[in-house]
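Now produce a polypeptide, keeping tokens residue-aligned:
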Amino acid sequence: MQKIQAGMAVELEVERKADFGWFLTDGSEDVLLHHNETNEGTELEIGDSVTVFIYHDKQARLTATMKIPDIQIDRYGWAEVVNVKRKLGVFVNIGLSKDILVSLDDLPNIDRLWPEVGDRLYVSLKTDRNDRLFGKLATEDVIQEIAEKAPLKGVRNTTVSGNVYRLLMVGSFFVSQEGYRCFIHESERKEEPRLGELVEGRVIDSKEDGTLNVSLIPFKQDLMGEDADVIFTYLMNRGGAMPYGDKTPPDEIQFHFGLSKGAFKRALGKLMKEDKIYQEDGWTYSSDRK
């Protein structure tokens, strides 16, 4: 029999029954299998062999469960973040009655890049010198082993989504729902996504090695719509009139709207084409003021 070790599934023998469950043994040490940790309808007898997963309960005692998680030591899977503790790290649910900690030592140094509740991390398990279980983030080598090779043709401008697993200064990496390894260059995003965050973008290139380059920046026509919404909201918050138009200097446009002069003019053109605004003497007005 395998040694009783936290983080692994082992086959043990039922040694004796107690009011609250069964004690299982490997011949040298035993561990409790609580009634709550058995599969529904299971009947055990002394001498039976049973496969269980070993972990620590909330009192830090070794305990067994027949509800064996996919994520184990040396076995990876996606786990949802269920709690964030800034002094400890983040806790993920792998299907046990106790959540597993991913230590702050393995998380980004910048707090805003930490995973949030609902994000997903690709993890396995590891133990420290005291045999305590922790979540272990997948390395790039692990991701490359599980990633599917994306086709070279037919994927450009298609939409892909997935959870971010790696953050670098030059960009972010995620695994798409199809299993493709995707890279977002820093120039192809408005802000850096969090570790574990679900992102969605469009494919801008397909590489020979089967990876995809992805942009989180919308097409120009989509950006124009966003910019037009920003300008029109600003205009209406001023009562339908603002002292900015085609002739406004670029630095003023950047200061008030965060847009380039070209993007500002394209957005104004869109709003005028939709008959939402008109310009007069260097001012822009909402059409309902005519």
Remarks:
- The radius of gyration is 28 Å.
